[in-house]
Structures are given as structure tokens and as C-alpha cells.
Protein: NAD(P)-dependent dehydrogenase (Short-subunit alcohol dehydrogenase family)
Organism: Cecembia rubra
Amino acid sequence: MRLKDKVIIITGSTTGIGKAIAKASLSEGAKVLLHGLEEDLGKLTLEELGCENTLLHVEDITSEGCPDRLVGLAIKTWGKLDAIVNNAALVVSSNIENTDNRFLSKVLEVNSIAPFLLIKSALPYLSTSRGVVLNIGSVNAWSGEPNLLAYSISKGALMTMTRNLGDVLPRTHGVRVNQINPGWVLTEREMIRKQQHGLSENWYEEIPAMYAPSGRILWPAEIAAAAVYWLADESGPISGQVVDLEQHPLMGRNAPKDSSTIHGKF
């Protein structure tokens, strides 16, 4: 087992990508501290994954002291901490016209500042275990869609932090920091989000080739499979890396001439 007896905190792990990473980590022998915002989803996830090597903490990640409580719970329960996965995120539509200071600050607080604070809280224990930080970003970090301004800014900040700490922390604390930037993933909330944009219930069954050359978008389990590599010892000393997980190039790509679909709507 690639993660045997490793203790891992995964934020935002009661649904979507975080839940898939938790499931994959458990199957590889890890002990996982689940975290989420909704107690009902947390209980359902705990029931699905089992209680033998899992624990659940329900709290807003931006609440003062939440990172310390997550780390403290892991240490109290299992006596060590080997990795943290910063997955919790606020995915909201916005543009230059409707993004004000309060809105942008909230998105940054969840998507950029909370991950920083969890790293800082976990660092003494990760240093002892020569552990790992894995940040879950987004391909929108590179520039982002027109209607995802605040979200894209926050993921860009997270990516810069990954590269900065990924260079510094291996030298000062023996801790590696890397990041996965998922592309378009078929999570439960993405299904709902697109329906709210006016698409049908089965919108994901007919995706234009421009966005899904394979005929479908990514599954959470495919992101989780990549996450296991970065959490496992097999990734060796690699640090400060950001890996885009999408099915087409993000830069220098020539969009099909006959495409008129706007990703923000579709």
C-alpha cells in the first residue's frame, strides 16, 4: 500500500474531488481526517467510507482557529501528521463588474488564506514526519474564464504560494509542497452549477469536442489517482511543482473554428 499508516488531513472532503482523494487514500492504507462544511454530507461520507481509519470535523475552514483544531484532532487521534491536502474551495461566478472588495476578500480567505494557515499550523508536525503538502488548485489559475474572476485570482495566489513554499520548506523543514490544477471535473456540485446556468440534467453527456476531446470531462477519481502519487513516497524529493490535469493543452491551443459555445455557459 502506497500510503500505509500515513495520517492525512483533507479539507473539503465530504464531496467531489476531496471525497475522491479521501477514498483513494484510504484504499492505499492511510488514516484520513475528513473535513467539510455541511454536517449531513459529512455523516454520509463517513458512513460510505467507514469509521475504521477515518474521522470527521465539520467547520467553516475560515473560522478562527479551525486549522489548529484540525491539526490538533489528527495529532490527538493518531499521534502524528504526514500530509495535508488543501482542497476546500469556494467556486463562484464573478466578473469585474460585480466583484467588490467584500466578495473578493471572502473568496481569497477560503481559497488562498485558509490553505496558508493550515500549512502553518501543520508545519511543526509535517517537519517531524518529513511530510507533504498537496494543494488542489485549478487550471483557471493561469488566467481563468471571464466569469470566474475572483476564483481565478485566488487560485493564482495559491499557485504562487505552492511554488514559493515548495522551494523554501524542503530546505528549512524537510517538507515538500506541490499542486494539482484540475481542469473541468464532473463533481456533484458542478452538475448542479451547470443546471443553474440553464443546462439540462444530463448536460455532461454531450460535451462539445472543444472542451472534451475524449467525449467526456474528467472524473474526481482520476484527480484522486494523481493525488496519491504526490502524497506517496514514490514522488521522492520533488517539490514546488504545479501539474495541470486536463485533456487538452492550456496554452497555445487553437480552438476549433466552428465552435461558438462559451465555456462559462456550457
Q: What stands out?
A: The longest strand covers residues 176-182. The two ends are 40 Å apart (CA to CA).
